[in-house]
Amino acid sequence: MEIFECIDTRKTIRKYSDYIPTDDEIKRIINSARLAPAAMNTQNWKFLAVFNSDIKKEMAKAVLKKYDEITSRIKDETKEGILRYKGHSTFFENAPVVIVCVETNAASFMGGVLEEANYTKEEISKMRPDSYLLSMGGAVENMALAATALGLSSCWMVAPLLAGEEFKKILNLKEDDKIVTLLTIGKAYAENPNRAPKKELDEVMEIIK
User: Fold this and answer.
1) Rounded to whole angstroms, how far apart are CA atoms 128 and 123?
2) β-bridge mates for residue 97, sequence order
3) In 128-200, where does DSSP find H-type helix?
């Protein structure tokens, strides 16, 4: 599929058919992440493709438990909104494959320079973005487009990461690993699912000459 067709037709899909992507399809998708731009070419990432239903179920239970913990600490009038959010946080359990995207620990050279120059953390955060997180974002977008090119669908998820620390234990990750997103992969349940509306180009673009 031509690249602009992939961009124009990619959709966020939360309900999948029974089709199980092949190992080769998943390898091709994750290889596209490997080739994404990385800050300072650090490539401090890894991607876990979870097919195992028991592991996905355990992860979903960890999310539900975390929501129960949160709702026990908030006012009743806030709980309704949380319950709606909760409904979008565990559907990954039924996705054929969940790619867990992990940022591995790496020292930031420029961050170290600014600390040495005695800038505060607040000043540093204003002076530079989280370059490693931006790298992960590029890798995840590459995977979403690669999935589209292969006739598959995906959903980029952050809501489940309320239980990110629990996920690390379930997946035997290191203490200093950081899970930044989940990406579900499969074939869309419906043939022509609707795409969420997007703002018009003129609303988001400004040309300065």
Assistant:
1) 9
2) 185
3) 131-149, 164-170
In DSSP terms, which residues pair with 5 in a beta bridge? none
Give counts: helices (H), strands (E), the chain: 9, 4
User: In the chain, what is the straight-line distance between the N-terminal and C-terminal CA atoms, in Å?
Assistant: 34
Closest CA to 46 of 144, 173, 166, 145: 173
Per the structure block, which two tokens stand in for 85?
């959010």
Is 144:186 a contact under the CB 8 Å cutoff? no
Q: At what angle do helices 53-71 and 76-87 cross, to 10 degrees?
A: 170
The CB density around residue 9, as the number of other CB atoms within 10 Å, is 12
Q: Which amino acid is at 169?
A: K
Residue type, 176: D
pLDDT, tens digit (0-9, with 9 covering 90-100), for 156-197: 999 999 999 999 999 999 999 999 999 999 999 987 777 888
List, for residues 29-79, the tens digit of each pLDDT value.
999 999 999 988 999 999 999 999 999 999 999 999 999 999 889 888 888
Q: How far apart are CA 170 and CA 52, in angstroms?
A: 12
Q: Which residues of 107-136 are buried (b: 16+ CB within 10 A; e: fewer)?
A: ebeebeebeeeebeeeebeeeeeeebeebb
Q: Is the pLDDT of residue 1 over 70?
A: no
- Distance separating alpha carbons of residues 36 and 135, to the nearest angstrom: 7
